[in-house]
Amino acid sequence: MQTQPDRHSLDFWRNPLGVDIPNDPLKFLYITDEAEHRMVSWLAQRVFEYQQQHANTERQITKMVMITMGALLPGVLLQDYIHHCAQPHLPEIEFGTFGVKCYYGPGQPLEHPLVVQPLSIRVKGHTVGIVEDLIDLGGTARFVRNVLMSPDYGARDVVIIAPYRKSAAQMENIDVLTFGLVPKDTWIITPRERVETMVKRVPYWAEHGASREQCLDNLQRIGYPEYLLTDWFETAWSQRDSV
Predict the structure, then answer these.
(1) Rounded CA gap, 57 and 54, in Å?
(2) Domain limits of the chain?
(3) Which of 86, 199, 212, 242 could form a disulfide with 236 if both were Cys (CB 3.0 to 4.6 A apart)?
(4) In angstroms, rounded to a whole number, what is the distance separating the alpha carbons of residues 113 and 143?
C-alpha cells in the first residue's frame, strides 16, 4: 500500500508535486494556510541570519517591497515576524508595495511585466528586500531589480525573498532567499488566489470537454475545501461561456 505524503510536515512543502488534471498541461498545488505561515516563518529566520551575516554593512536590508498582488500575503506575514522578533541591534525595516503584473491567469504569462502600482516608499541608497510569492525563472525579479536600481529609484542593491522558486539555477549577482522548489509545469494556488484560479480554470476545463461533475472532482482532488466549492463553484461554472 502506497504511503500518502504527510502534508503537515514542512519537508513535504520543500519539493511538492502538483495534482494532474485530465486535458490540462498544468499541475496544481494547493497551498494550505498552515503551510503558508510555516514557510514564511522559516523565511523570516533566514532574513535574520542574512542580517547577522552582513552586520554593520550597507548590504543589510533596510527596506522591503511587496510585489502586489502575489506578495501581499507572504509580505504581511513576514512583516509580523520581522517587526516583532528582530533583535534590538538589527536595523528597522520599512515595508512598502510596488505593483507589477506578470500573468493574466494560470499558465498565461504576459509578454512583458507591467508596472500597475507606483512604489509606495523611497528606496534610494538602501538595500531592498523584494518580496515575491514565487520566482519564475527570475523574469519578474530581474525586472523589479532593474527598475528599483535605476536612477529614478536609486536602490543600492536588492535581495529576493519568496516561498518558492521554479528554477534551481542561481540568479546572477542577486542574493535569493527561498524556501522550496516546484516544477515548471506546476501552478501554485496560494491562499490569496484560490477563487481566482477556480474562476479562470473551470471554464478552461469545460471548454476542453469536462462536465460540471468532472470540474468539481478536479477541484476536490486539487484540495479545495467544501466551503469554497459551495460558495463559489457555481460562479466559476457560469463563466464557461465567456472563455
Answers:
(1) 6
(2) 34-181, 192-243
(3) 199
(4) 7
